[in-house]
Design a protein that fits this description.
The structure is a homodimer of 487-residue chains. Chain A is elongated, with a radius of gyration of 23 Å. Chain A has 2 domains: 1-288 and 420-487, 3-Layer(bba) Sandwich (FAD/NAD(P)-binding domain); 290-413, Succinate dehydrogenase/fumarate reductase flavoprotein, catalytic domain (Flavocytochrome C3, Chain A, domain 1). Chain A is an alpha/beta fold. Chain A starts with 9 loop residues before the first strand and ends with a helix. The longest helix of chain A is centred in the first third of the chain and has 20 residues, at 104-123. Chain A is built from 12 helices and 22 strands. In chain A, helix 3 crosses helix 4 (104-123) and helix 10 (359-365) packs antiparallel against helix 11 (373-384). At the A-B interface, helix 7, helix 8 and helix 11 of A face helix 7 and helix 11 of B.
């Protein structure tokens, strides 16, 4: 008998002893695992929650704590800011954001239930200031609540679904509210009596015929055999930190160099597959570079090495960043005029590739042939002055002419500039968080949520901030509730 | 116990009887399965070969019968035509063709051994006329042997590896030499005493612990339990005809509508995964539209709906076609002047979207803003007259100005024009055709070859004609030889 591993479950007949047991065993203590544990516990289950690190957090703890919420006419924050947000438009946007990879059933369910999920988040104690911050922000630098966090107001999204801002950010001054979000969820987890074990790494599932009945946890260099009476919930994150998995399933990520995550090694995806789970859309990833900060830069124009524009730059920064990677060569240029240039943040690792008194000079400095970049910018400015972008549909107010010299081309180099990324592909799950096999049937006793699954954030070209935490918390809850309900 | 299926192997303890047995059981009778069966039989194994259809062929039988061969200084055909083809350049090209998905070990092995594989092909009785046909052809319409079948002479490939034509086409007048190729391999299979069973569909593998020891074959509506003493070889093709699999793993193929294959339902990929096999690069596919025929059209220029060029059009037609799908919108335009226009073949399902006395008129007819398409063509013609394409590096002789009016824009619409495709992702295998699990270990008793595996043709943007048949026949042989050698 080959040893059990991430890739091969342990038959229950080979379990030497049970070291612990619970109704529901949750693996991973980010937002998905925390939400699953809370819901399972509130449904009356005895819950064990394991985390490989020494504390909670995961990638959620590194995030901005922003959750994508809308529909039902809008949250009270959206409505106070004057935005009506019908479920139909919200759902349509979720599907467009998922593009060819969208899970329609998840989009529809979340489209209907996001407002009640908003009430749940607040009930957990997550504070929201309740105000609206207009403009184009990656995260608010203050403690503001509602921001535009996607491509809602940009073509082609705005033509198919009425736009509304839907990024709901935890009240927290500065970047990184995700840590506070997880802290609050952790407090709930502990208050409810979930038994939390840290420094515990899952090494195999335990199966009885086709049913998952537990997990082998590695703690203090010893295998612990943990029985799950109702179900195991995988919430271990994506595989941005696993180079071997990236090479096999998501090799485009090697164009760039800054994975986001906290030991996101894809373990849960392997565990799920070891029990027959199906991993889907494994080639998808979110990437973004902080090109919209300082904010004036959001008015810039991108060209590829052929001097061509390639997207309406008023889309979500991640959609624009993902389109950059589709361009020929190893870089793109962000073009700015003196009215819209500010010193870029050092962490962006951009550099000034050219400057000029006119766009012709910038073109020459970049060694581009005459009539490329300069022609692109003449065309762009001519139309921008009239409020139009006939090529890509960029819209006001970001659609401004760039005609105040001197002019600047910032180089965004895929290898050396900051392009963060995390993976979006993962286990196929039902809307109840059941892990599905390749025939589409639920694997008894096995559930999953968050970035080890394929969920709301499904397509790199359509990602919007807050989609992943929405998915983690909402479908984490679904998985917890369903697992607790197994008899 | 859940019933065995494509997704769940049958434990040997549940096998009610053995209906037949052999040393090596091959599933699928295209070029990969035939090559595997020949090699296994010649190594002394008793071989059973099953095919779900009523006869041999598979996707190989629908192909042009073109095999990508080079290295070692070149075949006698390459050398007679004046092409030296060092192994180093051949291997470098194979790796570039695989792009981010390349299997370096397979590229290196085939790089070294393609010449001896060429001898093997001829020894099976496959005839080659031995001549060289210059120009840009999808397949020769005569019975010529050697053609340029990739992007060897185009940027960026030509800068990294010395170009040589490497598409070796079976002697056969007209298109479709693949049928003849498979017929010849079938004759060898039968002459060697391989036992062939048609109308037989694999429904599950049979396992003893982690070892594959047979397969359940559905024949005449009854399950046959087939024992494989040494190994099972999966050679069942890709999943271009399986819409559910495409939706989950390769959704970009829904942009287009013409799968190539012969019931290519991905069954072998599922069978391999059911035994713990790893499926990799499942998002990759080859697509091509016949835009280079009639041949004068190969001189055309492609623009997207923004009037921008996007690639050096002297690349392989499939690489150009794949880049088309990356463009915004649902179509691209092939621009031609009267010196290079011929009536397109009806099967291409293209249409004339605009004509004009000058490019400005074409631009207006296409409702493109002034200064887009016409500016693109003015720039292109200006440089083409001097033999240069500073944007994308297109080269002579195809780099010709398009300045002989009247002018034409052909619409290639992704949904309605002919865009054929087949899938490239599949089981991860060793260079000996062993199916590898997710930890990279060989699964005892299980082998695979052809398009149910990830092999030489690994990346849609780098495909070259003949790569898939090279992979099927060469790595089919490797799998057959290795399976026969198991004791």
């Amino acid at each position: 008998m080959t040893a059990a591993s991430l890739h091969r479950p342990l038959p229950v007949t080979a379990v030497p002893r049970w070291d612990d047991e619970a109704d529901v065993v949750v693996i991973g203590f980010g937002a998905a695992g925390a939400s699953a544990a809370i819901e399972a516990r509130e449904a009356g289950a005895d819950v064990l929650l394991y985390e490989r690190n020494s504390g909670s957090g995961g990638a959620s703890g590194l995030s901005g704590g922003e959750i994508y919420i809308g529909g039902g006419g809008g949250t009270e924050v959206q409505r106070a800011a004057g935005f009506d947000d019908p479920t139909e438009d919200f759902t349509a946007y979720l599907k467009m954001a998922g593009g060819p990879c969208a899970d329609d059933a998840k989009c529809e369910l979340y489209g209907r239930e996001a407002l009640s999920h908003w009430e749940w988040l607040k009930a957990q104690g997550i504070p929201y200031r309740g105000n609206y911050l207009p403009g184009k922000h990656i995260e608010p630098t203050g403690d503001d609540t509602l921001i535009w966090s996607g491509s809602e107001a940009a073509a082609p999204f705005c033509d198919a679904a009425k736009p509304a801002p839907r990024g709901h950010v935890i009240q927290f001054t500065g970047w990184g509210g995700g840590r506070k979000l997880v802290d609050i969820l952790e407090a709930r987890v502990r208050a409810l009596g979930v038994r939390v074990v840290v420094d515990a790494r899952a090494t195999a599932l335990i199966v009885e015929d086709t049913r998952v009945v537990g997990a082998v946890m590695r703690i203090d260099n010893r295998d612990h055999f943990i029985r799950a009476r109702r179900g195991v919930i995988l919430a271990t994150g994506g595989f941005a930190m696993n180079e071997a998995m990236r090479r096999k399933y998501c090799p485009l990520t090697f164009k760039i160099n800054d994975p986001i995550g906290d030991k996101d090694d894809g373990a849960g995806i392997h565990l799920g597959m070891s029990a027959g789970g199906d991993a889907v859309h494994m080639d998808q990833f979110l990437t973004t570079c902080p090109w919209t900060i300082p904010e004036p830069q959001a008015n810039g124009v991108f060209v590829n090495i052929a001097g061509q524009r390639f997207i309406n730059e008023d889309c979500y920064h991640g959609r624009v960043s993902r389109a950059m990677l589709d361009q020929p060569g190893d870089r793109v240029y962000l073009l700015l005029d003196s009215a819209h240039y500010s010193e870029p943040f050092a962490f962006a690792r951009t550099s000034i590739a050219a400057t000029g008194a006119d766009w012709e000079e910038v073109e020459r400095e970049l060694d581009m042939p005459e009539g490329t970049l300069a022609a692109t910018m003449a065309f762009y400015n001519d139309h921008a002055r009239r409020g139009a972008d006939p090529l890509f549909g960029k819209r006001t107010p970001i659609l401004t002419p760039l005609d105040q010299g001197p002019f600047i081309a910032l180089e965004l180099n895929f290898q050396s500039s900051y392009f963060s990324f995390f993976t979006l592909g993962g286990l196929s799950t039902s809307t109840d968080g059941e892990v599905l096999d390749r025939a589409g049937a639920a694997i008894p006793g096995l559930f999953a949520a968050g970035r080890c699954t394929h969920g709301l954030p499904a397509w790199g070209h359509g990602y919007s901030s807050g989609l992943s935490l929405a998915d983690c918390t909402f479908f984490g809850r679904r998985a917890g509730g369903r697992a607790a309900d197994v008899r």
